[in-house]
């Protein structure tokens, strides 16, 4: 298969990760379309992008052209068919395997024959997602970090059948977005969450068992281990529901007790305390979605 030239990118999902990816795609000069089934989610995403772009522009981190690309050139809509002309489709939907499998089959049916389909999944098998399509060689994992406009890393995950040309194209796109890329094998959690989630989970066990307060646990990791953010504050930032979903994948796929989600995490998610986005997690936040 000849390498695909990427000019148009469609991003599926207007949540925190999706709108961040769409923003970086647009400011990097790609013709970008953001798609979500919810018109309200798209409206919130456009406002979040506007605020982020204006802030970066005011600090001199984005030039006038990049600002204009994001604020005036980006398209959005609720119809999945808007992705039909994209050269690269990046899925950033909820971390739910049956949902993603269904979505990949739909995207495969409507996408151009030479289009690449990527997933921003943080834990689900790229090989499994690729198997839901008739173009497994053109499927790849592109795991961006939150917040996407700020964090430089992208984990690139090659599925069993992902072609060398697809990897090369994805690498080129990431570099055009100003990202630093490291490749990971298609194993549950890849590199980032295979290491990060057990640490967060153990911090929650420490809190549940009374080993220390949330402030003490985070303080020890920040001042003792030089982490910029403590694990409990980081879990709130990621979303406790997202952390639980990733841990459940790790536990199910790898079958080891060290990945068993802490009961306190399950209880908090069941109560709707998902962290910053709901205003309450291990800490309380004054404004919903913001600390």
UniProtKB/TrEMBL annotation:
InterPro entries noted in UniProt: 3-OHacyl-CoA_DH, 3-OHacyl-CoA_DH_CS, 3-OHacyl-CoA_DH_NAD-bd, 3HC_DH_C, 6-PGluconate_DH-like_C_sf, 6PGD_dom2, NAD(P)-bd_dom_sf
Statement: the UniProt record of this protein carries the keyword Translocase: no
MF terms in GO: 3-hydroxybutyryl-CoA dehydrogenase activity; NAD+ binding
Main enzyme class: oxidoreductase
PROSITE patterns: 3HCDH
Pathway: Lipid metabolism; butanoate metabolism
Protein residues bound to NAD(+): 13-18, 36, 95, 100, 122, 146, 277
SUPFAM superfamilies: 6-phosphogluconate dehydrogenase C-terminal domain-like (SSF48179), NAD(P)-binding Rossmann-fold domains (SSF51735)
Site feature (Important for catalytic activity) residues: 143
Keywords from the UniProt entry: NAD, Oxidoreductase
One Pfam entry name: 3HCDH_N
Gene Ontology biological process terms, A to Z: fatty acid beta-oxidation
Domain 3-hydroxyacyl-CoA dehydrogenase C-terminal: 189-285
The enzyme's E.C. designation: 1.1.1.157
Coiled-coil region list: none
Binding site for CoA: 52, 59, 122
Keyword Cell wall biogenesis/degradation recorded: no
Domain 3-hydroxyacyl-CoA dehydrogenase NAD binding: 9-186
Sequence similarity: Belongs to the 3-hydroxyacyl-CoA dehydrogenase family.
Protein name (record): 3-hydroxybutyryl-CoA dehydrogenase
């Amino acid at each position: 298969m000849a390498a695909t030239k990427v000019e148009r990118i469609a991003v599926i999902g207007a949540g925190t990760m999706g709108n961040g990816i769409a923003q970086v795609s647009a400011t990097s000069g790609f013709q970008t379309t953001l798609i979500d089934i919810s018109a309200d989610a798209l409206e919130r995403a456009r406002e979040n992008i506007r605020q982020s772009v204006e802030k970066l522009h005011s600090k001199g981190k984005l030039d006038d052209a990049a600002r204009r690309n994001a604020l005036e050139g980006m398209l959005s809509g609720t119809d999945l068919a808007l992705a039909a002309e994209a050269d690269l489709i990046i899925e950033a939907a909820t971390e739910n395997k049956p949902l993603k499998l269904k979505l990949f089959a739909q995207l495969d049916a409507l996408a151009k024959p030479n289009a690449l389909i990527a997933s921003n999944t943080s834990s689900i098998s790229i090989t499994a997602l690729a198997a839901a399509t008739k173009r497994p060689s053109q499927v790849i994992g592109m795991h961006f970090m939150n917040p996407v406009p700020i964090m430089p890393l992208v984990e690139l995950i090659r599925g069993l059948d992902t072609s060398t040309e697809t990897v090369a194209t994805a690498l080129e796109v990431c570099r055009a977005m100003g990202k630093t890329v490291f490749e990971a094998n298609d194993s549950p959690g890849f590199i980032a969450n295979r290491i990060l989630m057990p640490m967060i989970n153990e911090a929650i066990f420490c809190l549940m068992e009374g080993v220390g307060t949330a402030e003490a646990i985070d303080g020890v990791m920040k001042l003792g281990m030089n982490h910029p953010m403590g694990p409990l504050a980081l879990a709130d930032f990621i979303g406790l529901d997202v952390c639980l979903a990733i841990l459940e994948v790790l536990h199910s796929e790898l079958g080891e007790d060290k990945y068993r989600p802490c009961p306190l995490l399950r209880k908090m998610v069941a109560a709707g305390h998902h962290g910053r986005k709901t205003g309450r997690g291990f800490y309380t936040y004054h404004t919903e979605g913001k600390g």
